[in-house]
Amino acid sequence: MLYIIGLGLSDERDITVKGLEAVRSCERVYLEAYTSILMVDKPRLEAFYGKPVTVAHRETVESDSDEILRDADSVNVAFLVVGDPYGATTHTDLVLRARERNIPVTTIHNASIMNAVGATGLQLYNFGQTVSIVFFTDSWRPDSFYERVAENAALGLHTLCLLDIKVREQSIENLMRGRPVYEPPRYMSVSLAAEQLIEVEASRQGNVCGADALAVGVARVGSDDQLIRAGTLRQLAAHDFGAPLHSLVLVGHRLHLLEAEILRTHAIDLDSLNRTLKDKYKLEPFQSALGRFAAHQPRSVATRRFPPLQRRWYAQRLGADDSVLTSEWKQLLLSWKTLGLIAIPITAFALGTWQVYRLKWKLALLDDVNDRMHRRPIPLPLHVTADEIARNEYRRVLVHGVFDHAAEMLVGPRAMEGEPGFIVVTPLVREDGSRVLVNRGWIRRDLKDPRARPASQPAEPVTLVVFVRRAPRDNAFTPKSDPLSNEWYSIDVPRMAARSRSQEVLLDAIQPETVTSALHDSRNGIPLGTPMQIDIRNNHLQYLCTWYALGLLTSAMLIFKLRKPPTAASRVKQMRDRAGRFL
Predict the structure, then answer these.
(1) What DSSP character marks residue 221?
(2) Which DSSP letter does residue 125 get?
């Protein structure tokens, strides 16, 4: 059995009980000593485990793993890893080699910097991709980690930076000569990592890890003398964090108020940190007090941001400066997005109210038109003015005269119930010789020729009951009529009147009241008149419901926005700006 056992972060006592039992049951014990180190030496481990420990360097694990796996199918072998076993890909490779030999593998996990970084107060689910920062040399200054940091920054996430260690490293000269001479161990410090990050930012210019970027440096996490300090990279570069091991965290923009409160306890310079939190993260000082208040509340309260009205109440209870709240409200209410969101429901309610008046006006108009249609027919004046047409629209009138069939005009094509046809417009010559246009109605296409419908060509005087209509309006898709060739695609009253020397008056013949009479007229070629019905649209009820619904919806959105912290919108904008720059 191959046991891969995590040792934790600090000393020999960090191993789990299960891991200790496994070590003591093993025939051989190897300690991986190049991806990380414990803060105690090998003799202390051997004394605590009661077993001899063999140090496995990089070449042993990566090139001579057969020695580690020897007889592991019949005896127990332990492979000890500082932190958690799967913190490095090398250990995964060892597991794959063991399984290729059918050696059973048992993994015993432990704490690592990947989860112990929560000691900084930064919440683990706000972390993005982890990166490694290596020592720069005169000829090699790698910055491939920068893209990963930029991606995290665009999403507002924190970035854990694992700092390089050099154990049993050979100089280039010794490596070329093949001499097994190794350089003294080196461990990257937080201050050196901060300097390298500032240097990379100066060359990349992405506003990701500049000198004023907020970061947290940690040293000897898990030990009795662990050290955590928060500040800008410039401040961290000048701070002494003491003995190794060190790690560094770049703070993202999705910083929770509780995270900010804990960072204040680790500040190198509290005033400087407060200015950074206010300017870059929009976290005012009083929100720290709210965080302490929320820390004693149920989780549902402690883990959320407080709406402005609740924050005002909490701040007053904690003695916070109310001017901060006032400035937040002014900033929120004066933002163009908020002003636009305020304008939308106001406009929608105004338009809805206007549609209420329009609905009342339209209902009164329909009642008036319906009254006109059912009044007793009156004689049509000999000379009809535009005012009389407007006043008597939809009013039934009596007209007497003779049709001038030679000046007949066909408008179309027009379909009725799926059958193509034409509208017949004929001038009517009255007793005094004046002429008016009569829309006699619809005929089938096969009756276009007047000779095919002799019944529709009366030569004697006729008396008609018609109703007055205003000229219909053309739409943009209707072709233009050609009066010279007598081709009409719409009822163009002025041009029709000019061609037939008539008054600009259009009278609609009324369709017979019974279906039988209408079918009889249609079969005999007599145009089918206009039905006695109102064709005025009334959609104002639908419109007012739409506008009021839109007003209610946008009002709810406005209330929701005002209840959210003012910093949320700015953070989303910052995340999008950074995403557009780096992704």
Answers:
(1) T
(2) G
C-alpha closest to that of 503 among 468, 463, 461: 468
Count of other CB atoms within 10 angstroms of residue 98 = 22
Rounded to whole angstroms, the Cα distance separating 442 from 356 reads 38
Task: Give me the torsion for CA of 365, 368, 374, 379, rounded to 10°.
Answer: -110
Distance CA 392, CA 510 (A): 16
**Percent of the chain scoring above 70 in pLDDT:** 84
Residues with Cβ within 8 Å of 81's Cβ and at least 6 positions away in sequence, in order, are 4, 5, 6, 7, 32, 35, 87, 88, 91
Write out pLDDT tens, residues 277-320.
988 888 865 444 444 444 444 444 434 444 444 444 444 444 44
The reply to whether omega before 377 is within 30° of 0 (cis) is: no
Q: Token pair for residue 469?
A: 């209509």
Question: 3-class secondary structure for 384-452?
Answer: CCHHHHHHCECCEEEEEEEECHHHCEEEEEEEECCEEEEEEEEEEECCCCCEEEEEEEEEEHHHCCHHH
- Give per-residue pLDDT as tens, 224-279: 899 999 999 999 999 999 999 999 999 999 898 889 989 999 999 999 999 999 88
Backbone angles phi, psi at 546, to 5 degrees: -65, -45
Q: Which two tokens stand for residue 400?
A: 């007497």
Output the pTM of the full model: 0.51
Segments of the chain with pLDDT less than 70: 170-172, 174-175, 284-337, 513-523, 563-583
Q: β-pairing, 28-32 with 77-81? A: parallel
Q: Residue 15: phi, psi to the nearest 5?
A: -65, 145
C-alpha closest to that of 53 among 91, 113, 7, 95:
7
